Amino acid sequence: MFKYVPVFLILICKTAFAQTIFIDGVVISKTSSRPIEYANIQDKSKSIGITSDSLGKFRLPISSKNTLLTISCVGYENTSIHVNPESFVVIRLTPLVSTLDEVTIKPKENPAFEIIRRVLANSEKNNPDKILQFKANHYSKIGLNGEILTYFKKSTTDSVNKIDRGLFIVENLGDFYQKNKKQKDIVKFTISNFPKNYPVNIFTNNQINPSGFYEPLIQVNLNQLTALPSNNALQNQRFYVNPINAKTFSQYDFQLLDTLVNPTDSVFTILYRPKKGISFNALVGIMKINSHGYAIQEVSAKNADSLQTLNFKIHQNYQKSEAQWYPYIRTLSLEYLLKQENKEIKFIFSIEDYLSNFTQTFDAKEVYFDGTYRQILPKADTISRRSFDKLRSVELLLRDQQLYNKSEIINKKPLFQKVIVPGMSIVKTAMNNGLMLGPFFLLYNQFDYNQHENIRLGIGIQNDIQKRPRWRIYAGSAYGLEDKKVKYEGILSYHLTKDRYNKIEIYGGNDIQRPGQNPILLPNYFLPQRFGLNLGSGAYLLDNYKKIGLSVFLKPFNWTQFKVFYEKETREPLSYKLAENIVSDYNHAGLSIRFARKETLMRTGYFETVTNPYYPIIRLNVSHFNSNNAYHSNFWKANIVVSHQIRTKKVGKTMTNISAGNSWGNLPFQYLFNNLSVPLNIWGSNNKEGFQMLSTAQLGYNNYLSLSIFHDFEKNLWRLNNAWFQPEFMVGNKLAIGRLTQGAPLVNNKPLKDIHQGVFEASMSIRNILKVKIKGFGIGLGVNLVYDYSPDSFGSSRFGIRPFIMPVLF
What is the pLDDT of residues 310-360, one digit of tens each? Predict the structure, then answer.
C-alpha cells in the first residue's frame, strides 16, 4: 500500500548553535477545506521559507516561541499567524474574488501582456543557461514513489483509503559549475536505499530536469531518464511550447491574478494557458514575475493535454544574488496513473535539484570542462548514511526516512550481505568496463562476439588519468577463439590541456575491420572505446589491418574538435579474395572534424555514456592516400555526415540524416565506400540511416549521397478528445545513390556492383490506433508500413506491413 506526499522542501537557513525545532501544519481553503499546494510559508525575521506539498502540509524549522509566520498563495488572500515550536497549526486561506474562468481581455487591453513583453526583452540576461560563469553547491534527490487510492463501497456512504510509500531514492551531494555555456555537475557523495555497490546512478539521470524556463521549447526527453546508453527515438521525446517565446501572444492566453507591492520591488502573478482551438504541445500553469529585471521568480507548469498518459509537473524558484537571478530550486515529476476496478495506483518519478551558495568566481583547477555534464566520483558511494545526514542541506521527508529504515533492515539480511552486495560489486565493475588496480585501470573493452572470431577474449590497461591528467598510456590485446589470431593496439598521448581536447597522440594496432568504412572522430571519452564488429549472420567481408600513426587534436570552438593525423596502414583481405591479391600499403594523411552542439557525457565512476539532446551533429573527413607499392595509385577521399533534428511549435519534429562521400583517383577495393549497408544481426535492426536490404558483400562505390528524413507529427496532425483512439503519425523516407566510376574490382570472382539507379524506401508509422488497458497499464496498438520504390528490387517483396504494440507514454 502506498501513499504519496510530494514535498518540495528546502531549509534556506539552518541554525548552527542550537538544536532546530520544527512547526508542522497544513494549509487549506477557508471555503472548501481542500488542501492548498505551493502555498508559501515564511518566517521573514529569520529568512526561512518553505512551500506546502500536494496535501497542503509543511514543516518549518523555528527556534523561538511566538514566531510570526506569513502565508501567501496565488488566488488567495495573504494571512499571518503566531506559532510556537513543536505544535501543529491549521491555516485557512480565503480565496480571492477573481476566478480562472473569467473572459480573457483582448491583447491590447490585457495588463499581463506588457509584463510578458518585458520578460521576453530581458530573457537573454535572465536565462541561467546564459550566465557567463558561476559555481554553486548542489543537492539532488531522485525518487520513485507510489500512491494507492482504494475505494470502499458502503451501504450509506463511500470511503477512500489513501496510503503512500517511497519505492526508490537516490541522493547526491556535490558542486555545480558553469562557464562559457559549459556545465559540469561533480557528485562527491551519493547514497540510496539500495544495497551497497548497486550502480544506482547509472539508472538515474537528472539531466531531464530543465535547467531554466527561458528556452522557446521545453524538452521532455524520456530517452534521458537513465544514464545508460540511450537511443534518440522520436516517440520518446516531446517539445512543449514555452509561454516565454516570441510568438506567445498568438498561442497563449495570460491573466494577471495578483500584484504584490514590496518596498523594493513588485511581484506579478500571471496565469497562462493555451488559446482555445489551437493544436500544439502546450503548457498550463502560473508564473511570478519580479520587477527587478522582469525575471521569473517562481514558475509552475504542467502539460495542458488532459488525455496524455504520462503527465509531468515542473516547478522552479529563482533567487537574486550579485545582480543575477539563479534557479535555486528545480523540480520535475512524472506521473503515471494506473486505474483498476476499485483502486487507482499512481507512480511518481521525481527529480529535485537544490542549488545554494552561488558565487561567480572559482579556481580553474577545481574543474575540467571535458564534455562531461555529470561526473560521479569513483568513491562517491562509500559514504555512510549517517555521514550523509550531516551534510544534507534539505530536510528529509518522513516517507524517505521510513524507506531508508526499512531498506537498512532488509540489506542486513544474510542473502544481501553474502550474495547481493558482492554480486552488485561484480556488476558495477563490469558496467564500469574495468577495475582500478593501483595506478592502472584494467579494461574489459576487448571482449566481443562475432561470427568471424566467435568469442573474442582480451584485456586493456590504462593509467589513471584523473590523477595524471596530462598523460594517457594505454595498451590492449585480444584473441579470437575461432580465427586463433592475436590482435593488439596501443595509445600514448600528451594532453596540452587537462580536459584532453587538445593533445598529441601516438597510436598503433593490428586488428580486423570491415572494408569501406569511414573514420569516426568519437566524443571525448575518458577511457578508450572499441565498437564491436557487426557482421550479421550472412556473408561478410573482413580485412586485417596494421597501422601506426601520429595525430594532433585541437578544440578551437565550443562543441568542436579537430584531428590532424598521419599514419602508415596496410590492409589484407581475410574473408574474401581479390583478383590482384596484393596487400595495400599506404601512407595516410587527413583531417577529421566533429561538431556536436551541447553534446554531453555522463560519467558514473568510469562508466560513460553520451547524450545528444541538441543538434546538429556534423562529422567531416578529408584524407590523402600515398601508395608505397607500384601496383596501387594515390588517391583522395572525403565524406561528411550531418544529423539534425528540426523542432516546430505546431507540427512536431523532424529527424534528418545526410551523408555524402567522394573520391578522386583509382581506389583499391578496401577503400571504396561501402558504408550504407546495415547488416541484419540475430536481434534484427531498425537503423534510420542505413538500408538492411543492401548486401554488404556485393557493393562498393567511389561516390555516394544518402538522405533519410523522418517526421513525427505526434498528436498535432489529428488531436482527438477520445481516450482510446489517439493516432500519432510518423512518416519517413530514405534514399541513396552511389556510383562506381572506376573499373569494377572482382570480389570472390564476381564484379562489384553499385547503386547508380538509386535505392528508395518510404515508410509510415501509426501509433495508438487503439489504446487499451492491460492490468491498468496503457498499451498502444500501431502499425509500420514500408514500401520499396527503387528501380531495382533488393528483396523478395516491395511492400511490408508490421503491427506493433508499445507502452503509451505521451
Answer: 899 999 999 988 789 999 999 999 988 877 667 778 888 999 999 999 999
Residues 6+ apart with CB under 8 A from 256: 110, 111, 112, 115, 268, 269, 270
Residue 733 is inside which H or E element, if any?
A: strand 728-739
C-alpha cell at 418: 553474502
* Cα Rg of the chain (Å, integer): 30
Rounded alpha-carbon distances, angstroms, from residue 338 to 110, 309, 345 = 41, 10, 5
DSSP per-residue letters across 25-47: EEEEETTT--B-TT-EEEETTTT
Alpha-carbon gap, residue 236 to 809, rounded angstroms: 8
Rounded (5°) CA angle 359-364-368: 110
Beta strands in 666-776 (DSSP E): 703-714, 728-739, 746-747, 750-751, 755-774
Distance CA 661, CA 456 (A): 32
| Position 647 confidence tier, pLDDT thresholds 50, 70, 90 | confident
C-alpha cell at 196: 551497497
Q: Is 564 exposed, middle or buried (0-12, 13-18, 19+ CB in 10 A)?
A: middle
- Distance from C-alpha of 408 to C-alpha of 81, rounded to nearest angstrom: 40
C-beta of residue 263 within 8 angstroms of C-beta of residue 291: no
Q: Is the peptide bond before 616 cis (omega within 30 degrees of 0)?
A: yes
Return the amino acid letter for 575.
Answer: S
Hey, what amino acid is at 433? N
* Strand partners for 733: 709, 762
Length, in residues, of the chain: 810
pTM of the model: 0.73
